[in-house]
Design goal:
There is one protein chain. The protein has one helix and five strands, in the order αβββββ. The termini are far apart. A five-stranded antiparallel sheet has the order 1-2-3-4-5, covered by helices on one side.
Length: 96
């Protein structure tokens, strides 16, 4: 384990604010889970250690999953019930 729950939680808050600042609500973060040898969706089929931030989505009464690499501490993608969106970081440190 390279990162801590606290460090991932701090980064998750920044990522979520960057992705959707108008709707970010820290209270929607349910929990942070560490997974060893997790098969990730992006890059497809790769098996790595991950952190998953579970987010309550009250509008659609569902859960979203923000997946981080434990190797880099960076977000890989956010997964909802119907889609997966890769997350990119620009030169200014903002996530899109």
């Amino acid at each position: 384990m390279n990162y801590t729950e606290e460090k991932i939680l701090l980064k998750a808050k920044k990522v979520l604010k960057d992705l959707n600042p108008a709707y970010f609500n820290e209270g929607n973060i349910s929990k942070v889970v560490y997974n060893e040898k997790d098969e990730v969706a992006r890059p497809a089929g790769e098996i790595i250690n991950t952190w998953v931030v579970i987010i309550n989505e009250p509008v659609f009464d569902s859960l979203d999953f923000l997946v981080f690499s434990d190797i880099t501490g960076e977000p890989l993608y956010i997964q909802s019930k119907h889609s997966i969106h890769e997350i990119k970081k620009d030169n200014n440190g903002n996530y899109h």
